[in-house]
Design goal:
- Helices cover about 40% and strands about 20% of the residues.
- Helix 1 (about 30-45) runs antiparallel to helix 2, helix 2 (about 60-75) runs parallel beside helix 8 and helix 7 (about 185-200) crosses helix 8 (about 215-235).
- The model has no long low-confidence stretch (mean pLDDT about 95).
- The chain is globular and about 55 Å long.
- The chain is α/β, with parallel strands linked by helices.
- It has a single domain (about 1-265), classed as Nucleotidyltransferase, domain 5 (2-Layer Sandwich), CATH 3.30.420.10.
Length: about 280
């Protein structure tokens, strides 16, 4: 068994929520059908280039909704699993060393890959050996830092929980890729962007000197609301700003097709002046 994971990140520093990381996991046996289905939907909407959250406009809103419906149909059928991770700015880490602060980007990325999909629980559905193929959206770090990060990811295979689940991270299958070439990454970018948009109240933004919101902001809010409706079809009453519950069964960290994770530092202090009004 092979799992293919695509990852992306957004909003390093938001007004209320920061450090957004996202991932979509597809079993290799489902990869070609999923990619084909998304390609057909994009072509039907005359999307021949890259779709991105930053490109959402009123003129293209209906087309983006069609692509998101296709994506969430795939998620609802469990052909893909999506995970979104972020931090709440009121939880301020304490006691970080200069090295930890400098490498925060990769440290959080590592935690996301290690925990977000609940890989340690995948044995409940997939006994036997599993290989992870990891496609990372191009990282804003130098080659040395990126190589070091990849070596840490490979070492996850030696983690006791991963070993019990027979998870192996293949060093030859960890690559940086361009979202332009991968429809799954593009769809993930839209979902990740929508969550960062709403959690940081960007739907309220108005152009400088204006009393009304711009058409692009209104279109993005409409797309966000549509995405939220699709999420809530999968998980009723879903709260985008909190970690998704497990309903008393930790294996749901793997089983659920869509989940959010609000990462809280173990050693932290609360700064309520940074809370969302």
């Amino acid at each position: 068994m092979e799992f293919v994971i695509y990852t992306d990140e957004s909003d390093k520093e938001g007004e209320y929520f920061s450090n957004f990381y996202g991932g979509v996991l597809v079993r290799s046996v489902d990869l070609a059908p999923v990619i084909g289905r998304l390609a057909e939907t994009k072509a039907a909407q005359n999307f021949h280039g890259e779709i991105k959250w930053t490109k959402v406009t009123d003129n293209y809103l209906a087309k983006y909704i069609e692509v998101m419906d296709c994506f969430f149909d795939i998620i609802a059928s469990d052909q893909a699993k999506v995970r979104i991770m972020f931090t709440n700015n009121t939880y301020v880490p304490k006691g970080l060393t200069p090295e930890q602060k400098q490498t925060e980007y990769h440290r959080l990325y590592y935690q996301f890959i290690k925990h977000a999909f609940g890989l340690r629980h995948c044995e409940c559905e997939h006994p036997g050996a599993k290989r992870i193929r990891l496609n990372l959206d191009q990282m804003p770090t130098n080659s040395e830092e990126t190589a070091k990060f990849k070596s840490y990811v490979v070492s996850l295979g030696r983690n006791p929980d991963m070993r019990r689940a027979s998870i192996h991270f293949d060093p030859q299958q960890i690559a940086e890729v361009s979202s332009h070439d991968h429809a799954l990454l593009q769809c993930l970018d839209v979902v990740l962007g929508a969550m960062a948009f709403r959690l940081n109240n960007k739907h309220r933004l108005k152009p400088e000197g204006q009393t009304r919101r711009g058409k692009k902001t209104i279109a993005k809010e409409k797309l966000y609301r549509h995405i939220l409706c699709r999420v809530r079809e999968i998980y009723p009453n879903f709260n985008i700003g909190e970690s998704t519950g497990t309903q008393g069964d930790l294996s749901n960290r793997w089983r659920h097709p869509y989940r959010h994770w609000k990462l809280i530092p173990k050693n932290h202090e609360r700064d309520m002046s940074r809370r969302k009004p």
